[in-house]
Amino acid sequence: MYPSFLVHSLLLGISFTSNTYAQSLYDSVSDPTKRAEFALSRLQIWYNSGTGLWDTTGWWGGANVMTMIANLAKIDPNNAQLQDLARRVFANTIVQAPAKNPQPGIENETKRRRDVDPGNGTFTLFNETGLESGYTKILNPWGVHEPVTVFPLGWDADEGQYVDVQSLRNFAPSSKDAATQAALATTPNPEDWLDGFYDDDLWWALAWIGAYDVTQKIEYLQLAEGIFGQVTKAWPTRCGNGGIFWSWKKDYMNAIANELFLSTAAHLANRAQNKDTYVEWAELTLQWFLNSGMINDQGTINDGLTEGCANNGFQTWSYNQGVILGGLVELNKAAPNDTYLPLASKIAKAAIEKLSDDNGVIHDVCEPGCGGDGTQFKGVFMRNLQMLHEAAPDDAFTDSIKTNADSIWLNNRNENEGNTLSVVWSGPFVSPANASTHSSAMDVLVAAISV
Ligand SMILES: *[C@@H]1O[C@H](CO)[C@@H](O)[C@H](O)[C@H]1NC(C)=O
Ligand SMILES: *[C@@H]1O[C@H](CO)[C@@H](O)[C@H](O)[C@H]1NC(C)=O
Ligand SMILES: *[C@@H]1O[C@H](CO)[C@@H](O)[C@H](O)[C@H]1NC(C)=O
Ligand SMILES: *[C@@H]1O[C@H](CO)[C@@H](O)[C@H](O)[C@H]1NC(C)=O
Ligand SMILES: *[C@@H]1O[C@H](CO)[C@@H](O)[C@H](O)[C@H]1NC(C)=O
C-alpha cells in the first residue's frame, strides 16, 4: 500500500536503507535533529492529502500535528526538504481540511442568539440550525474523566492514501495551474475552522500561527486572527464574569479552552497589528483564570470548574500544565510583567514533580489505554515547556525534556514499524501506535533539539 520508507528518508536527506535493522541500530542515533527527522519520515505516511489531516489523529489532533511540524521547521531551518514539506503541508491543509470540519456552522452567532440563560446556569438551546452533526466531546464518566471526542458516524472512513509530498501542490503564486490560481484567489474563511468546541477552534488558530511563523504568509495569521475573533463571542461564562465555556453547549468551564484562549491572544499580540487588543484579552483571561481556582494548592491545574464555579478536582492532565506556559511566555514578551515567568516556572516544576515517574518520565493517568484525545496531551506539555525554557532557562526543564526524549527513543519506539512512537514514554512500546501517539512523542524529540 505504501512505498518504502526509503522514499521518505531520501526526501529528508537521511541515509536509510532498510527498515529491518535490529532495534539496536537506531538506538545509537543520539543527535536530536536526526531523531526528529527519522520520526517525521514515519509521520508523513499518515498524512492524507485528500483531507489535509493525519489519519488516526481526528480533527483537533491534526492542528497539534501541524504545530509540531511548524516547530520542527522553525528549529531546523537548514533542512531544505523539511522546509518544503512543511510549506506544502500547510498549503494543502488550508484548502482540504475545511471539508472535514466535523460540525461546521454550529457557532453561527446570528442563528444562536436565542440561547437563553434563565439565570440558574442552564442554557436552553434552540435547535434551529439543524447543524448538530453528532460531533461532541465528553469527559469519560468512568474512572479518570478522560476527555473523549465522539465523531459523527463515518467521519473517519477515509482510507489513508499515501502521496509523495513532492506531488502536493505548493501553491506558488507563479503557477499557471488553474486549481492553484483558484486556491490562491480564495481567502481562508475562519468559520470553516469552527466546530462548536472552542478548544478545537483555538488549537487550529495556534497551528496557523505556527505556519505563519515558518512562512510569513499573512493569510495564515489572518486566519488565526479570524478564528480568535469568533471565539471572543463565547466570552463570558457565568463564573466570575469572564472566561469561555468548553463549547457552544455552554455546559462546562474548563482549563484547556481558557488556557488556549490566553495563549492564542498572547501569540497574536506579538504578531498581529492590533497588539493592544490582544494584550488586553490575554491579561483579562489570565486574571480570570487565576481567580477561577483552577490552579490548586500543589500548583498544578485541574481540568475545570463545578456548576458552582469551584475547582472540580478532576485530573491534572499534562496538557493543562502546558498550554498556559507558552501563553505566559508570549504575554511576557508582549507586555512584560515580573510575575509571569515565575508563575510559569512554578506551574512547570509542580507539573514535572506530579507527573514524572522515578526516572523522570512524564505520564498521564489514562496510560496505557488513553483514547485519541489523551494520547496527544503529553506532547503539548513538552512543547510548551521548551518555550518556557527558552524564556526562563532552568536545569529542571532541560533534564525533563532530555530524559523524556531519550526514553521515547530507547524504550517507546518500534523499529519494525519504521520507528513508530507510542503512548507510554517509559516503554514498553504499546501496539498499535498511531499518528496521535507518534506526533505527541515527536513534540519531545523536537523540543530536545534546542535544549
Ligand atoms: C451564518 O448566518 C448568516 C445569517 O443567516 C449567514 O449569512 C452566514 O452564511 C452563516 N454562516 C455560516 C458559516 O453558516
Ligand atoms: C432553570 O430554570 C428553568 C426555567 O425556569 C427551568 O426550566 C429549569 O428546570 C431550571 N434548571 C435547573 C437545573 O434548575
Ligand atoms: C437538530 O436538528 C437536526 C436536523 O433537523 C437533527 O438531525 C438533529 O438530531 C437535531 N438535534 C437535536 C439535539 O435535537
Ligand atoms: C502583573 O500581573 C499580575 C498578575 O496578573 C497582576 O496582578 C499585576 O497587576 C500585574 N502588574 C502590573 C504592573 O501590571
Ligand atoms: C490511536 O491510538 C490511541 C491509543 O492507542 C487510541 O485510543 C485511538 O483510538 C487511536 N486512534 C484511531 C483513530 O485508531
List the SSEs and their pairings.
Elements: H1 5-11, H2 23-27, H3 32-43, E1 47-48, E2 53-54, H4 60-75, H5 80-96, H6 109-112, E3 136-139, E4 147-150, H7 178-185, H8 198-215, H9 218-231, H10 255-269, H11 275-292, H12 318-334, H13 340-355, H14 377-391, H15 395-411, E5 413-414, E6 420-421, H16 435-449
Antiparallel strand pairs: 1-2, 3-4, 5-6
The structure holds 2-acetamido-2-deoxy-beta-D-glucopyranose (5 copies).
One 2-acetamido-2-deoxy-beta-D-glucopyranose binds next to loops.
InterPro entries: 6-hairpin_glycosidase_sf (IPR008928), Glyco_hydro_76 (IPR005198), MUG_Protein (IPR053169)
Region (Disordered): 99-119
GO molecular function, one term: hydrolase activity
Notes on the protein architecture:
By secondary structure, this protein is mainly α. The protein is 47% helix and 4% strand. It is built from 16 helices and six strands. The chain has helices at residues 5-11, 23-27, 32-43, 60-75, 80-96, 109-112, 178-185, 198-215, 218-231, 255-269, 275-292, 318-334, 340-355, 377-391, 395-411, 435-449, and strands at 47-48, 53-54, 136-139, 147-150, 413-414, 420-421. The strands form three sheets. The chain has a two-stranded antiparallel ribbon with strand order 1-2. A two-stranded antiparallel ribbon has the order 3-4. It is globular. The site of one 2-acetamido-2-deoxy-beta-D-glucopyranose has 4 residues, from helix 11.
